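Q: I have 351 residues here and want to know how they pack in 3D. Can you give me a structure?
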Amino acid sequence: MAVVFKGFPFNLPFASILLILLLCLQSGGGQKKKENMLAEKVEQMMEWSSRRSVIRMNGDKFRRFVKAPPRNYSVIVMFTALQPQRQCSVCRQANEEYQVLANSWRYSSAFSNKLFFTVVDYDEGADVFQQLNMNSAPTFMHFPAKGKPKRADTFDLQRIGFASEQLAKWIADRTDVQIRVFRPPNYSGTIALALLVSLVGGLLYLRRNNLEFIYNKTGWAMAALCVVFAMTSGQMWNHIRGPPYAHKNPQNGQVSYIHGSSQAQFVAESHIILLLNILSHKTSFCTMCLSLCSVNEVNRNNPLTSHRSVFVLVTFQKCRMCHCTFLNISPAFSEQVHLIYLFAFSLIKYD
């Protein structure tokens, strides 16, 4: 069947074939354009990665190389605030761990163009923070090669911490890329331990003719109390997780000393718990001392010291239970408080 327009025959099947060919050429041209664009983006990311392990990005670079398609690579982004005026100490600590992880990936034999590490500073990409509705730093996010980030693509910094090993485990779960963390050698701990051993050894050598202080129960009891006070206030948690001393809201400048979550705490909060521990222990020990004095006074001439031991142990257990109940208001390690009472019980000398 032919249709004539202004004297020219027009064949419908031929027109359909011509239209299909035009569409195929157009789609083929668009696909070729996407491939060229993707190749340029990967080449640019590889060039930046060869200069430094962590690629710094502003708003434009983030939208072009991280958010906009096409993209066949995953990107780990650390949103941070490293400028001195921001006073974000935890940002600097997290950045050090992030650099260790990125260097471990960059200089490993498994390095490829499937994963890149980037950083967006608040002062260089405030629009990115606003676009993602982000009001805290540091924050680690994974942008997958396909699709949008999910909830699990945001690293749980408050619960897990920002150690390089924990970040590597999270990346392996999200991207199936295994990163073996290589840390630069740090001899500060070895030097500090050697100095401590030398100091203790020198002290013992100078007092070699009078070592009675080693058997001083009061001294050992005070040392044990210091250790337990530090542990129950959360100092070990601070050492492992590396939280900031306090949090300053970048919007209104308000400083928070108590963390809003029950799964985390600030360093200032552990100091507050330490003072509360000292006050509560003081009350508990006063109660125990009164009990011990009463028991020793009443049973001074009683040879059945096992009865006194049981009574004192029961008293310690009651004080410990009351103290643990008091400590439940904080995320500190309240279950360790029984060490105080057990150590004090071991120091009791019966006549």
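Q: Anything worth noting?
A: The radius of gyration is 33 Å. Confidence is low (pLDDT under 50) at residues 1-5, 326-336.
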